[in-house]
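Our consortium's second objective concerns turning raw sequence data into structural hypotheses that experimental partners can test. To show how far this objective has progressed, the report includes one record in full. It was chosen at random from the queue rather than selected for favorable results. The single chain below, 280 residues long, was entered without modification.
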Amino acid sequence: MNYYELQITIGSFEEWHDIFVAYLAELDYESFVEEAPLLKAYIQEALYDGQRLQALLSSLQEKGAEIKAFELALLPQQNWNATWEAQFEPVIINENLRIVAPFHTLAPTDGIEIKILPKMSFGTGHHQTTHLICENMLALDLQGKKVLDMGAGTGVLAILAERLGAAHIAAVEIEEWSAQNILENIVLNGSAKITAIHGGASEIPGTAYDVILANINKNVLLDQLPVYGRVIANNGLLMLSGFFVTDAPDLIAAAAQVGFTWVRTDARENWAVVLLKKIP
């Protein structure tokens, strides 16, 4: 399979690089390498759309982003998983949690260690939103709870939920190859309480979830909020991320329309996580 490599030189890199990554991911770019001020993004040849890319870059410039240069090249076929693995670094959330790959060799830890096969699935912990949700999950009481992980990516949040005592976790992921990656990571971590499901919101099994985790993007979350309102238990918790701080009020307002009340909002480098509670 051939890939395009997009190289973008970004002004104010620290402020903008995560924003570029989020929007490019919505255009089916699968992996990213950050070499400030250069961002490299990779997409399958068959999925590349030059007009959509140009429209995105123009939109970001209108929002204030400075694109100093960009270059697109079709790369010869290679072992992409091996390339991705070589760039995968351990993620230290705090002293209580770290996310590593099977090939990492680290000193033993008294905290939770989750192993993830890095196959370009979104959700390795490197992105600010995954980091935010992991931090917030560590503060929740998940003992014996029924959890739904929407847009599960690698399954890292589902695995963490099990480690924190959840009794059953449904991990729903719309990308087939990513859903397969969840199965691999379930085996790798010895998880026994996670069910991996390939599909979207229509594939959510059952109801009365005590906790729903949804790290997707604003538009998908807005579309799926009514579904979350139907499948969550009264007084259940809904944790949303995958969007900017400026988008949080829109999501809080939309969630209120389907029976949720706001609990708190946390932020990390312009990205937000919102915790809500289902009103009986």
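The partners drew two points from this record. Residues 24 and 36 are 17 Å apart (CA to CA). Residues 3-78 form a domain with the Alpha-Beta Plaits fold (CATH 3.30.70.980). Both points have been shared with the crystallography group to help prioritize constructs.
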